[in-house]
Amino acid sequence: MTTGDAVNSTAMSKSQIAYHWIKARIDDGTFSPGYRLVFGQIAHELGVSTVPVREAVRRLEAEGLVTYEHNIGAQVAMADESDYQHTMQTLALVEGYAAALAAPSLPGEALDEAKGLNAELTACLDNFEPSRFTALNRDFHRVLFGTCPNPQVLDLVNRGWNRLAGLRTSTFSFVPGRAHESVQEHQKILDLFDRNAPAGEIELAVREHRLTTLETFLAWRHP
């Protein structure tokens, strides 16, 4: 356990320490939905026995953050599939429109920032970390729709992204191959911005990018 963990080990029981340690990693996406919680591994990391880890997991299970299945063990709870699907469908529509509206007023330095973020995303593919990739991906998209001149549309997009964060779901965690496809699609979108493509082309490209991520998630859930 690192000094950066906001846990005062002198004031908490071992099970409380384990609880806060696991919960922090669920909240920040390190332990994504479907991630298997191996008691022995966590106990070793914290320098405790498996008993307090098991107690912590039971508490997280009671809170709905963890599920436990026979022959599978403890896993971080999956997001509600229908909620995720509806959020992604809505976001595909409003973000595509927001990006199209933002394109004419997007400063050159913002486009350069988006290109730099996509380069970072590409570099992440060699040593893949879903939580970092997801955070960079979010930053990339926010740069492109950030100058949307319609505040109501922009509010809807931000609401969608905030809802996704609340669901703690990233397709990149389940299907890493989607990350490779995603950076390629980002490049196509950047090319459209570079050549001042018609608004309709940008809107469609962003919408299809979002819906492809959703389709990948649904294919993983229903093979």
UniProtKB/TrEMBL annotation:
InterPro entries: AsnC-type_HTH_dom (IPR000485), GntR_C (IPR011711), TF_FadR/GntR_C (IPR008920), Tscrpt_reg_HTH_GntR (IPR000524), WH-like_DNA-bd_sf (IPR036388), WH_DNA-bd_sf (IPR036390). It comes from the Bacteria. PROSITE patterns: HTH_GNTR. The keyword DNA-binding applies. Gene3D superfamilies: GntR ligand-binding domain-like (1.20.120.530), Winged helix-like DNA-binding domain superfamily/Winged helix DNA-binding domain (1.10.10.10). GO terms for molecular function: DNA-binding transcription factor activity; sequence-specific DNA binding. Residues 12-79 form the HTH gntR-type domain. Keywords: DNA-binding, Transcription, Transcription regulation. It holds the Pfam family GntR. This is Crp/Fnr family transcriptional regulator. It comes from Amycolatopsis decaplanina DSM 44594.
